[in-house]
From TrEMBL:
Family annotation (Gene3D superfamilies): Glutaconate Coenzyme A-transferase
Taxonomy, superkingdom: Bacteria
InterPro entries from the UniProt entry: 3-oxoacid_CoA-transf_A (IPR012792), CoA_trans_fam_I (IPR004165), CoA_transf_BS (IPR004163), NagB/RpiA_transferase-like (IPR037171)
SMART domains xrefs: CoA_trans (SM00882)
Protein name: Succinyl-CoA:3-ketoacid-CoA transferase
Keyword Lipid metabolism included in the entry's annotation: no
GO MF term set: CoA-transferase activity
Sorted UniProt keywords: Transferase
SUPFAM superfamilies according to UniProt: NagB/RpiA/CoA transferase-like (SSF100950)
Length: 234
């Protein structure tokens, strides 16, 4: 068995260079690779192209990279809760490629499966389709979308073993699942790192062959993106 453990986030992202394309798992603040994002901020990487569902919030997760202007281009499906993301997009400080959420997920999954491109009806007749090849199938127009070509994919799992097998928990499966194995190198940070054989084979979501580096993260904050509570008695 290949031992894919690295010491920490700093070692895991040590060879990421300025200007590279990075996939980052998570949905809002759920299931984001907090340790690796913080390590990228500390390293001072610049001119990055980041692929993620969104950029979280201003002072946490990808928002920390945005705050220091380390992201040159953001490929996402949602501007959402990040005022700095919105500001940089509207002022032209950062290039933004907004992609329908299902298409974003499929571009990840296609890369994971080794499929170079696919047709989808989503976005036909809108700005999303501008400059793209179109084709009719069964009387309905589709646009050609290309799979992502990323240098690194960074995901966060609940449990993993040192050969790279991963188990995600609940909603944290979201974009972590299709991004694992969808880049040249996949880095996984996990809440709990165990010995091979300790994970139930029937519960493994991503096999170790799709992961090149793994480490046990620490100090996860697991913030809530927006707290909404009903008053007692309602």
């Amino acid at each position: 068995m290949i031992d894919k453990r690295v010491k920490n986030a700093q070692e895991a992202i040590a060879d990421i260079k300025d200007g590279q394309t990075i996939m980052l798992g998570g949905f809002g603040l759920c299931g984001i690779p907090e340790n690796c994002i913080n390590a990228m901020v500390e390293k001072g990487l610049t001119d990055l192209t980041c692929i993620s569902n969104n950029a979280g919030v201003d002072d946490f997760g990808l928002g920390l990279l945005l705050k220091k202007h380390q992201i040159k281009k953001m490929i996402a499906s949602y501007v959402g809760e990040n005022a700095e993301f919105e500001r940089q997009m509207l002022t032209g400080e950062m290039e933004v490629e907004l992609t329908p959420q299902g298409t974003l997920a499929e571009k990840c999954r296609a890369a994971q499966a080794g499929i170079p491109a696919f047709y989808t009806p989503t976005g036909y007749g809108t700005e999303v389709a501008e400059g793209k090849e179109t084709k009719e199938f069964h009387g309905k127009m589709h646009i050609l979308e290309h799979a992502f070509d990323a240098d690194f994919s960074i995901v966060k799992a609940w449990k993993g073993d040192y050969t790279g097998n991963l188990i995600f928990r609940g909603t944290a499966r979201n974009f972590n699942l299709p991004m694992a194995g969808a880049a040249k190198i996949t880095i996984a940070e996990v809440e709990e790192l165990v010995e091979p054989g300790e994970l139930d084979p029937n519960e493994i979501h991503i096999p170790g062959i799709m992961v090149q580096r793994i480490f046990q993260g620490e100090k996860y904050e697991k913030r809530i993106e927006r707290v909404t509570n009903r008053k007692r008695g309602e």
